[in-house]
What we know:
Blueprint: E1 21-31, E2 36-47, E3 54-63, E4 69-82, E5 87-94, E6 98-107, E7 110-120, E8 128-138, E9 141-150, E10 153-165
Antiparallel strand pairs: 1-2, 1-10, 2-3, 3-4, 4-5, 5-6, 6-7, 7-8, 8-9, 9-10
Amino acid sequence: MAFEIPADLPTDLWPMAWMIGHWEGSGHGHDPATNEDFTYAATVDFAENGSPYLHYMMQLFRTDEAGQPIAALGMETGFWRPTDDGQIEAIIAQPEGVAEIYVGRADGAKIELTTDVVARTVTADIASTGGHRLYGNVESDLMFTYDRGTEASELQPYLWARLKRA
């Protein structure tokens, strides 16, 4: 599907412009707590409103044998914003009681982010300690990986997917 950069997009957002839109697809994951692999359906939205940031939301769904979504698996939301020195900051919150601040850079159609800060509520479901994310535009698809560390496991692959612009 063709994509056109909005004419009034703030120039600071141009390195992230290729991400704007609604993406759908499937992915794979590994839960180190249970040592189980899983598959999921995913939707990712990056939206702009003329301000110097992108709003981000990702939703994951359990799937049936045919790969159709059947139940919510997880979600996160946040804001991605460029800094004056060319970096990208992403503030991402999950309803399980975790909020993360990532810092990274865009390099063409690749964005790589590493956690700078992780905050957890006292009742957080996941004892997250850090993360690393990689997003790329590959053959017009959004590919991403999310490595996560917890108090029980070192930083390791957690989620990866390939999504199509919908």
